């Protein structure tokens, strides 16, 4: 199979390598000439035999939309575009219709595996017609793990990215639970070997997972995570998952809470918690924490 790959960053570059290792001919294009096989998107398309398949791995939103619009002008009837980035599922309907005006097929594919995908393979969740998915199947087979890891989530464009969005929402909640457990173990002097506790959970327990493996490795290298700041971005998919839950009246307490926890991480001193402290002080006389006066101590009686 010949395939074009647009976007050769941390994910795309490793995907190009994995597909080549499986015997596929990959022509990669990136705006960074040090990474690119060709000097333009047009040159990449020209290097592919018909019918052409182009996989897009660029940031979601406008970068993806503009790339697909440019590909529409370069490709023709019978060709196919795969959006493997983290696009919002509602964008897939628009992009599929745009390409369909020229008879160009469209498949959306949620990709999970991060920087470890080159070695372990990528979990792939795709949406699109059975005919279009079949055209990309050799690439899916090359990228997925040896066993499992691939699903044709639905025939409607957006099915793959919707599945990946929910996957990432669940990931938010799992990470938050592991993190809160770690904080409690760190806080209580009773447990002396927190990294060893987490390592023990990796074997035989009902909460073992790859995320647990990764956190265990992190706290084994930096027990108290002193070298990190407690700041966590959200990629967008957590927000989209919660919004979809609202749109469909699906209760999503844990995932929503884990999303809001990330917002808290961006505040040096939470305004909402200041208000809670003030209310507790007003109704119950509970002590409040204040900055120390010049030359004095903060809350000496607390």
UniProtKB/TrEMBL annotation:
Domain 6-phosphogluconate dehydrogenase C-terminal, chain residue ranges per copy: 160-293
The keyword Oxidoreductase appears for this protein: yes
Documented EC number(s): 1.1.1.343
GO molecular function terms noted in the UniProt entry: oxidoreductase activity
UniProt keyword Iron, yes or no: no
Transmembrane feature ranges: none
Keywords attached to this entry: Gluconate utilization, Oxidoreductase
Domain of life: Bacteria
Enzyme category, top tier: oxidoreductase
Similarity field: Belongs to the 6-phosphogluconate dehydrogenase family.
Protein name stated in the entry: Phosphogluconate dehydrogenase (NAD(+)-dependent, decarboxylating)
